[in-house]
């Protein structure tokens, strides 16, 4: 049996690729698909909620929402409690393929193998998944915060330099003796 890191990587990859395939079926990218999922499950939502949930900037969220709205998946509606704020709502008549079958099949497949576990094992699985989600959200938030704090020109130069060095290009700072 593989160690935990290998299994974690395999699980993560399988989940990402599944959601990429679903997003592709909808004509979306992964971030747009995740945003749509959040709006469908938790909506109506203010756009700011997507910023924190997806870990992307407000301007990136605007682009995501623009594309979802253009595709007919979401509507922007005024917040009845605060007219300055806009809420995102899933469209009743969303265009594109119906994914109910895909997710129904996923639910059936998951249910089939989950019936093999007893209550104690299911509790352990639930604990593992809940803690995995907590750890991933914490690290995602931290990475997003670090990226935001490193968005200045100095850090941009550092990132570009690291990419050049990783590609095997000469490090001009070292060649000048500084």
TrEMBL record:
Protein name: DNA-binding MarR family transcriptional regulator
Region: Disordered, residue numbers: 144-178
GO term, biological process aspect, one: response to stress
Ranges of biased composition (kind: Basic residues): 156-165
Domain of life: Bacteria
Pfam families documented for this protein: MarR
Assigned keywords, A-Z: DNA-binding, Transcription, Transcription regulation
Domain HTH marR-type: 1-145
Residue ranges with Basic and acidic residues bias: 166-178
InterPro entries to which the protein is assigned, alphabetical: HTH_MarR-typ, MarR/SlyA-like, Tscrpt_reg_MarR-type_CS, WH-like_DNA-bd_sf, WH_DNA-bd_sf
Molecular functions (GO terms): DNA binding; DNA-binding transcription factor activity
Segment forming the signal sequence: none
């Amino acid at each position: 049996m593989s160690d935990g890191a290998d299994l974690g990587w395999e699980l993560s990859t399988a989940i990402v690729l599944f959601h990429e395939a679903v997003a592709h079926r909808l004509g979306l990218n992964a971030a747009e698909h995740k945003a749509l999922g959040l709006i469908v499950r938790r909506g109506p939502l203010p756009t700011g909620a997507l910023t924190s949930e997806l870990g992307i900037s407000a301007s990136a969220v605007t682009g995501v929402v623009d594309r979802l709205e253009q595709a007919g998946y979401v509507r922007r509606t005024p917040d009845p409690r605060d007219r300055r704020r806009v809420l995102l709502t899933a469209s009743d008549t969303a265009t594109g393929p119906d994914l109910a079958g895909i997710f129904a099949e996923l639910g059936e497949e998951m249910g089939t193998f989950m019936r093999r576990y007893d209550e104690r094992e299911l509790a352990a699985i639930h604990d593992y998944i809940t803690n995995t989600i907590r750890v991933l959200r914490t690290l995602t938030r931290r990475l997003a915060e670090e990226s935001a704090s490193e968005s200045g020109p100095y850090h941009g130069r550092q990132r570009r330099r690291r990419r050049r060095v990783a590609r095997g290009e000469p490090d001009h700072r070292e060649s000048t003796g500084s």
